[in-house]
Amino acid sequence: MKSSELNVATRWHFVNAVEQLVEAALNRIRAAAGEALRTRSAFHLVLAGGTTPRALYARMAGLDTDWRGWHVWFGDERCLPADHPERNSRMAQDAWLAGSAIPAAQIHPIPAELGASGAAHAYANTLHDVGEFDLVLLGLGEDGHTASLFPGHDWGTCPDSPDVLAVTDAPKPPPERVSLSARRLSRARAVLFLVSGAGKCDAVAAWRRGEPIPAAAIHPLAGVDVLAERICVRPNGEDA
């Protein structure tokens, strides 16, 4: 079965290695930034955490772009001290942002050191006047979670859901987190999932079967693109 026949709103793109995934993602970011800067003079990018995004961010400095128009946001954050090595903002800072030419005032980490509730409120205020994101980067957990939207929890899919959720009982440590809601992540011109590793096979299979996992709750008007390592797909007729 072709991927386009599974769900017209979810476009699957398989590559053979992480290096190819990173290169493809970099090309998509380059194109999205170029279009946004030409037409709107600003590029609003939402970053994901994780190992694969880190490899991507390490390549970002090589882009030929007008960094003055970039605005960087984060899809979720762990409630840890601001300089903690497990913070998504710290990872992005170390891999890319510390040496970038993006104006510091246009890099917007989630102040998760305030605690889940305080940080969610503060980040919602920061986002208040921001319209559609130009590009949202997301990952996929082995349980189907994305950002800090976990199975069995509130994903923020209702029309009146807040832009930012305070997560107080995450199944992965630390239990306190802050996450953009599915509704807010879907307010984007483009959404790109980066999926690598054989451990994601179950989640990918569930998604492709149409099961209601958190990742499938992200549905912008333009649809979703998933860049995935081929190893993430089970070697059987359904997913081949």
Automatic annotation (TrEMBL):
EC number: 3.1.1.31
Superkingdom classification of source: Bacteria
Keywords of the record: Hydrolase
Keyword Cytoplasm: no
Domain Glucosamine/galactosamine-6-phosphate isomerase: 19-221
Family: Belongs to the glucosamine/galactosamine-6-phosphate isomerase family. 6-phosphogluconolactonase subfamily.
Function per UniProt: Hydrolysis of 6-phosphogluconolactone to 6-phosphogluconate.
Alphabetical list of NCBIfam families matching this protein: pgl
Protein known as: 6-phosphogluconolactonase
The species this protein was found in: Sulfuriferula plumbiphila
